[in-house]
């Protein structure tokens, strides 16, 4: 199993860099993960989405899709793409230390 | 015993086959069955794919909803306003209230075109179409007849959608159609998907991507459509990529029926009803079940799913009414014929745990899986008759079981 080190702590991740165990995540790790995804600074709206992702994961066992994020996070899909240009659901999940959203079949 | 009342919302595939199976199971004195729907048009939805190519007509694929219901089932044709889980009641738009002992949500999914910026704006039904409803499919047929060359773009806005293979089948049939008209060399075809490959499941995705390539259809992946600009003739993604088109066939976003959002606790953010993936019972209330496209379970929204769920649903309703623990178990079984054009089709068969694999169905001497064949095409054509005469009446189809058969599948496939 691959590992990564954020904020001085080693964590287990999958091949694509998503956390295997969300309990290993701390807020201090988020800025570093964000930088590796090309986001230099986490602003307040970034944090709003990140915290929302973690709450959703805790309640439902999977992170939300972009469309559900747009309906429920208080941030529109357009803004979500401005915050996380490479794909809000995936990138925010990675920064929030939860597995890749399962999406739909 | 006091007569119980089962209210079934929706007279489509799931509602009809559930009602008919329940009616056979219980005498009318024991269980009253009421089906509610807002109109009397039962569309054989797999037929919509064929309408744009002149291979089926609208009147061949629509029948009366209430005529598909066995005698002894009450049919109420009225829109649903909302459901009150606390009082076990359905409130209808005409003001009537239906109390229930068991509720089955079978109202499928609806197209929410308006959720995509510009989709129904300028150019809608002129150069931007969908074949996911009958009016759209019929309008598209005229547009295709008038189309004599240019860029045809087929776009899935986002999942979930009904029958996730249908947009691919549309590409395959369009390739055949333009060949028949001898203008294939004048048509550029592009398939634009939000997924990172042609389909959701790896082995089948490889086969389907290969077919797109073979038929000269370009594939654009990870494209999240933010805007459809009909007058400018382009799709624009949220990350500002553009795909130009002369004719666009768009599969709009789907949601649950609109009354679900007005029914506190019943549905999720998209209006689908979260239920246990195996028992189909709602997490919100034990006397509420969902079947088919309306159900929020992690499998395809497809008629075969609804059919396989039906047997499990009815057994679990029986158990619930008898006060027994639910143990009927839906395994996520999906079975789809995929039209590939030129009189051939593929067949895929999978469930929650097993992705679509090559081999044969249902056993090693059956129909070929994940492989083009004439037999599969004939199977798809034959199915329409089985749908009206066996599946909706709630009969078991010979050789087709609710649980996915494993015996004919080749489980050792290299990706």
Number of extended strands of chain A: 2
Largest interface: pair, residues per side: A-B, 18 and 17 residues
CATH H-level superfamily title of the largest domain in chain B: FAD/NAD(P)-binding domain
- Mean of all residue-level pLDDT scores of chain A: 91
CATH class of the largest domain in chain B: Alpha Beta
- List the total number of helices of chain A: 5
The rounded distance between the terminal residues' Cα atoms of chain B is: 57 Å
According to CATH, the fold-level topology of chain A is: Arc Repressor Mutant, subunit A
End-to-end distance of chain A, in Å? 26 Å
Give the overall pLDDT of chain B as a whole number.
Answer: 95
What is the fold's blueprint, element by element?
The complex is a heterodimer of chains A (105) and B (415).
Chain A: E1 3-6, E2 9-12, H1 30-36, H2 44-60, H3 66-72, H4 77-83, H5 88-95
Chain B: E1 4-9, H1 13-25, E2 31-37, E3 41-43, E4 62-64, E5 73-77, E6 80-84, E7 89-92, E8 97-99, E9 102-105, E10 109-111, E11 128-129, H2 134-146, E12 150-156, H3 166-180, E13 187-192, H4 202-214, E14 217-220, E15 225-229, E16 234-237, E17 242-244, E18 247-251, E19 254-256, H5 258-261, E20 273-274, E21 288-290, E22 295-296, H6 303-321, E23 334-341, E24 344-350, E25 359-361, E26 367-369, H7 374-391
Parallel strand pairs in B: 1-2, 1-9, 2-5, 9-21, 11-18, 12-13, 12-18, 13-14, 20-22
Antiparallel strand pairs in B: 3-4, 6-7, 7-8, 10-19, 15-16, 16-17, 23-24, 25-26
């Amino acid at each position: 199993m691959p590992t990564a080190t954020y904020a001085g702590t080693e964590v287990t991740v999958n091949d694509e860099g998503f956390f295997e165990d969300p309990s290993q995540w701390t807020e201090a790790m988020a800025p570093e993960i964000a930088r590796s995804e090309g986001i230099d600074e986490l602003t307040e709206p970034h944090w709003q989405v990140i915290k929302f992702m973690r709450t959703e994961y805790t309640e439902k066992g999977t992170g939300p899709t972009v469309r559900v994020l747009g309906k429920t996070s208080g941030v529109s899909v357009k803004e979500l793409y401005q915050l996380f240009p490479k794909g809000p659901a995936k990138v925010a999940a990675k920064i929030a230390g939860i597995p890749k959203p399962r999406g739909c079949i | 015993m006091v007569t119980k009342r089962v209210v079934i919302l929706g007279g489509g595939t799931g509602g009809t086959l559930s009602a008919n199976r329940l009616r056979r199971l219980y005498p009318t004195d024991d269980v009253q069955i009421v089906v509610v729907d807002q109109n009397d048009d039962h569309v054989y939805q797999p037929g919509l794919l064929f309408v744009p190519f002149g291979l089926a007509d609208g009147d061949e694929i629509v029948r009366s909803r209430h005529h598909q219901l066995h005698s002894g089932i009450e049919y109420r044709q009225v829109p649903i306003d909302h459901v009150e889980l606390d009082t076990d009641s359905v409130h209808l738009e005409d003001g009537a209230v239906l109390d229930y002992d068991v509720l089955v949500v079978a109202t499928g999914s609806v197209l929410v075109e308006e959720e995509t910026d510009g989709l129904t704006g300028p150019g809608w039904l002129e150069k931007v179409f969908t074949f996911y409803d009958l009016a759209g499919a019929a309008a598209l047929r005229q547009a295709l007849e008038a189309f004599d060359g240019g860029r045809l773009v087929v776009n899935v806005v986002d999942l979930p959608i009904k029958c996730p293979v249908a947009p691919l089948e549309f590409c395959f049939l369009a390739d055949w159609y333009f060949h028949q008209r001898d203008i294939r060399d004048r048509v550029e075809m592009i398939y634009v998907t939000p997924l990172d490959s042609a389909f959701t499941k790896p082995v089948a995705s490889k086969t389907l991507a290969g077919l797109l390539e073979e038929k000269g259809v370009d594939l654009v992946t990870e494209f999240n459509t933010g805007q459809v600009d009909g007058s400018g003739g382009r799709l624009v993604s949220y990350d500002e990529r553009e795909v130009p088109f002369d004719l666009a066939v768009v599969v709009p976003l789907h949601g649950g029926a609109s009354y679900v959002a007005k029914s506190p606790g019943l549905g999720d953010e998209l209006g689908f009803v979260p239920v246990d993936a195996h028992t189909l019972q709602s997490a919100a209330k034990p006397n509420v079940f969902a079947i088919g496209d309306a159900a929020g379970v992690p499998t395809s929204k497809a008629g075969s799913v609804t059919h396989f769920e039906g047997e499990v649903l009815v057994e679990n309703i029986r158990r619930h009414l008898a006060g027994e623990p639910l143990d009927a178990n839906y395994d996520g079984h999906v079975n789809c014929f995929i039209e590939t054009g030129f009189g051939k089709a593929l067949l895929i068969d999978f469930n929650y745990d097993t992705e679509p694999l090559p081999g044969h169905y249902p056993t090693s001497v059956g129909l070929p899986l994940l492989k083009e064949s004439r037999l599969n095409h004939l199977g798809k054509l034959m199915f329409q008759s089985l749908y009206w005469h066996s599946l909706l009446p709630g009969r078991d189809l010979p050789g087709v079981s609710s649980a996915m058969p494993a015996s004919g599948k080749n489980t050792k496939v290299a990706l």
